[in-house]
Amino acid sequence: MTDGITLNKVELKLGTKEFRFDCALPAGAVTAITGPSGSGKSTFLNLVAGFETPDRGRILIAGEDVTEKHPSERPVSLVFQDNNLFAHLNLATNIGLGISPSLKLSGSDRAAISQALERVGLSGFEKRTPGTLSGGERQRAAFARALVRKKPVLLMDEPFAALDPGLRLSMASLLIELHRETGNTVLVVTHDPDEVGRLANHAIFIDHGQILLQAPAEEFLARRDIPTLAEFLSG
Amino acid sequence: MLTRAERRRGIGWGLLSIAGIALFVGIAVAALLSWDTGNTQSRLFTAYTWRILRFTLLQAVLSTLLSVVFALPVALALARRPRFPGRVWFIRLMALPMGLPVLIGALGLIGIWGRQGVMNSLLLKLGLEQPVSIYGLSGILLAHVFFNLPLAARLLLAALERLPAEYWLLSSSLGMKPLSVFRFIEWPVARRVIPGIAGLIFMLCATSFTLVLVLGGGPAATTLEVAIYQSLRFDFDPPRAIALSLLQIGMTALILIAISLFPTPDDAGITAGRATRRFDGRTLPARLWDVLAILLATTFLILPLTSIVVAGAQANLWNLATSPAFLRAAWTSFTIALSAGLLAVLTSLAIIAGRGAIVDMKRPGGTARAFSVSLGGMSSLVLLIPPVVLGTGWFLMLRPFGDVARFAPALVAIINMLMALPFVMRVLAPAVETHRKRTGRLSASLGVSGFSRVWRIDLPVLARPLLTALSFAMALSLGDLGAVALFGSNDLTTLPWLVYSRLSSYRTNDADGLALILGIICLALTVIGTAGRKETSHD
Lengths: 235, 539
Hints:
The complex is a heterodimer of chains A (235) and B (539). By secondary structure, chain A is α/β, with parallel strands linked by helices. Chain A folds into two domains: 1-75 and 152-235, P-loop containing nucleotide triphosphate hydrolases (Rossmann fold, 3-Layer(aba) Sandwich); 85-150. Chain A is built from eight helices and ten strands. Chain A has helices spanning 41-49, 91-99, 107-119, 135-149, 165-182, 193-199, 217-222, 227-233, and strands spanning 5-14, 17-25, 30-34, 56-61, 64-65, 76-79, 153-157, 185-189, 202-207, 210-216. In chain A, α2 packs across α3, α2 (91-99) runs parallel beside α4 (135-149) and α3 packs across α4. The longest helix of chain A has 18 residues, at 165-182. By secondary structure, chain B is mainly alpha-helical. In chain B, 77% of the residues lie in helices and 0% in strands. Chain B has 23 helices and no strands. The chains are: A alpha/beta (235), B mainly alpha (539).
């Protein structure tokens, strides 16, 4: 199919909740995953990341079947809402673990770490520990790790939800810049309609474990014919 | 999210720990059951065993009742006075008996309440003729209250301090008098936690060994555990020991089932003067009442502790500490404690890894769930089958193979390990769980696993709780007399055994000195374990 992300008739049951996802998301685009809370947005992301495995169906990333693969074997980078960094390790180590899980780093790896920190506006922060940073700085460090990993897919689970509104804007523009430079495929879970307009080329709407709509961002934001989506968009 | 290899490893470790514990306990129980069966049944319910069972339960009921009844006013007073000079120290004082080897506490109590003790000479001067005896039922009760009143008070205080601060604002704005505050706010909280606290204390008192051994006066004041010990050690009557052991297991099983019906008490969240403000109890009678409760409790707790120090300091500590007997016992105790401690920590980690592997499964089947439950059960199996019973089983098992003393150090270390396991699990399991929650998905997504994960991610964060668990387990083993009692001899002398044998041969001066040294070692270990232990938040 495409070289983006494909969920082929994926079914999963968690407790009493059932999920059915069938979709193909475009490569090289930013896709917003939206929906009411508890609808299955994070489950969708967990399936792509490998934290959940489907009961039925297949998951493909860039044409490769990753259904049975461990999270570390999938070509993805992750940014969570929180706890993105090991609190007892400094930023250089935290980012270095993104390059080599056993921290075997070459000189050029170290240079890449410093460059990535500089790119996200944290130059000279190599020896700082996460506890000494603000929430926004910690998310920037997580972006820096995603940069050095050079994976074709970036998955983000409400990455800005814990930040102040002003900070969200500047982080969003940083994300767009980085996306333009790397041209990677980005999935971002968000419950904020404004963020869909700000970040995404493409959006899907999930309700009760099913994808109700998949559309380009402008069309998505203009749709009013699905009641739960209309409710979501009106905030 | 674990890799397949990690999950397999976790389940493997869990299986190994289950198999090890089950084998050790199973062999002991099998040895008991198979040893001359024909005779045991007729010995199960004789007048003798009934009397001992009755006394065991009677002293446990009375100890529990007295501990809780006296702890309540202390806890209420402390909760009502969130800030007064020395409050922190009083709360620390209440933690002291729990870190102190039981035998040493007993010596302190004898120093105060014994025939030549401060209390009785005082009462004698007042014209009463020796009204308190430290031996027999009254002594056992006194000692159990000494150890368990602070425990009950701490648990009650923690429950009271968990009440929202608004309650006190409300109650004072409604103009509630102390009696109404007690009736509508304090008592409902206390009533909810008292069953759990009482169950815990009842269990501790019903299986109390050392205190009854030292303070119990002959067959009239003997609990099941001490009777088992005496049957083997003095009368060498294995059928009686076996019958008593079976009774003991039956009794603890019933108590454990009863306790499991109540919520588990915990003293997490106890504060050293949080920002709680209380507006009630400002009247003079209320103040006097609180001062009285706290002063009496302080006196009751501090006198025996002082007695340990004073009596110990009168011995020639330097000569004692450099005597070959002490050095040999200290070395034996240390090696046993270190083995027991390390074994307890490793076994806990194996159990935690096994449970973690099950939790990680998407839909664990019936077998997996049963496995997880039995992993939890294994860690507290020693509560069901107490040290003396385990020792008895192994004693009977190994006797045909020659001198039991040869195997004794290993047996004592393993029994101590099992005794420490519930405590070690309580320290490590939540620490590991929190750590996994914070780092599990991140480690999985970055592919950090195996040695790199242990070295870089787990050890730096878990070093603190690991050290705490190790030092608790070591302190417990260092101060324990229960496991070593059956095996103690000239060939196997631990520090508590040395104190006890000095005490039995009326060399009280030596016993006091040794007790002081041992007490200091155990407290030092506990302090090392808890030093700098704060709830640090990693975010």
